[in-house]
Amino acid sequence: MTGIEGVLTVDLGAVAANWSQLAAAAPGDVGAAVKADGYGLGAAPVARALLAAGCRHFFVAHLAEGLAVREAIGPGPMVAVLNGFPPGAEGGEGLMPVLNGLADAAAWTAAARQAGRALPAILHVDTGMARLGLDAGEVERVAADHGLLAGLDLRYVMTHLACADAPEHPLNAEQARRFRAACVRLPPAPRSFANSAGLFLGPEFGSDLGRPGCALYGINPTPGRANPMRQVVRLEAPILQVREIPAGASVGYGASWTALRPSRIATVAAGYADGYLRALSGRAAGILAGRPVPLVGRVSMDLITFDVTDMPLPSPGDRIGLIGPGQTPDDLAFAAGTIGYEILTSLGARYRRDHIGA
Ligand SMILES: *Cc1c(COP(=O)(O)O)cnc(C)c1O
């Protein structure tokens, strides 16, 4: 029997292959950003697949995400928390905080004193994002007094690129320059620099540890050029009904689409509550029997509608492809005026999730 839920298929073999491809090409080690539940695809299965492929450095945003990844992969590999530890979370169960300013560093040196041993950490230097990380003044204070990092086992100094997806942007080279300059002012430590797109920018963006995220999940890290990564996600949602409407009838909220001819409409069980963004209204297609069918009318919370007039009569229960090789997360993002990351991290909780290829 066909379920009436959508099916989200995550190809873990493709995730692993994408990681291996990046790891083979990068000059240093390559880790993986698995924050936000592995970009919406399931942090635990994704992290286990990456571990099996050889990945030993994992990045999450929140402490709770880190604990979940640690639970999934067991002890050993590095799990670093980009947003740092909340106050009082010292201990962190084998996780490592990213220190995003001197206040973080002070708290972590105090924790090390209390623990009576060196505590591992990653020091984040801001070179052009102005979100998190030591600013230039803080770098100078550390340069003048390495004691500000006393008791820390500095595993990496990292920075983060603002414009890696725009290779010609002058800020890229400027950030590389600022990062090199900051690193010579700080206690010696391995460096962690490039995200996915940064790994494609050239040798001065190489480092001891790359931190790709989106490329692992099939997002194009080289916008404007052919996508070198394998697609990971397939999303299909079932047709609940097929109905015939006369010319002049409108479909959906706001009556935003009107049939110009007698038409056949397939109503499908997915909507903006499932991450099928409302901004896609009138701007995307479904794939039915290998052919595109236009999305018509507004995307509603739980339903979307496709014009299948020119198709052989589908049956309720047949699935329409929403994401796949013919319509990638990047394609949907372009249609919706956003980025593939937002498409992936918006994928809802109401799909059946099949992880394959592990
Ligand atoms: C999310 C994130 C990454 C991964 O970025 P992608 O563009 O997805 O490759 C790397 N570093 C930091 C600090 C991040 O926040």
From the structure above, extract its key features:
358 residues; 9 helices; 2 domains; Lyase, Ornithine Decarboxylase, Chain A, domain 1; seven-stranded parallel beta sheet; alpha/beta; binds pyridoxal-5'-phosphate
Task: Please give a structural write-up.
By secondary structure, this protein is an alpha/beta fold. It has two domains: 31-217, Alanine racemase (TIM Barrel, Alpha-Beta Barrel), CATH 3.20.20.10; 233-356, Lyase, Ornithine Decarboxylase, Chain A, domain 1 (Beta Barrel), CATH 2.40.37. The protein is built from nine helices and 19 strands. Strands 1, 11, 14, 15, 16, 17, 18 and 19 form an eight-stranded mixed beta sheet that branches. It has a seven-stranded parallel beta sheet with strand order 3-4-5-6-7-8-9. A two-stranded parallel ribbon has the order 2-10. Helix 1 (12-25) packs across helix 3 (43-53). The model has no long low-confidence stretch (mean pLDDT 96). It binds pyridoxal-5'-phosphate.
Residue fraction in strands = 15-25%
Provide the succession of SSEs: EHEEHHEHEEHEHEHEEEEEEEEEEHHE
CATH topology of the largest domain, anyone? TIM Barrel
Radius of gyration: 24 Å
Gross morphology: elongated
What do the pLDDT scores average to?
96
| Helix/strand class | alpha/beta
- CATH class of the largest domain, please? Alpha Beta
What is the CATH architecture term of the largest domain? Alpha-Beta Barrel
Low-pLDDT segments: none
Task: Give a concise summary.
This protein has 9 helices and 19 strands. With 358 residues, the protein is of the alpha/beta class. The strands form 4 sheets. Strands 1, 11, 14, 15, 16, 17, 18 and 19 form an 8-stranded mixed β-sheet that branches.
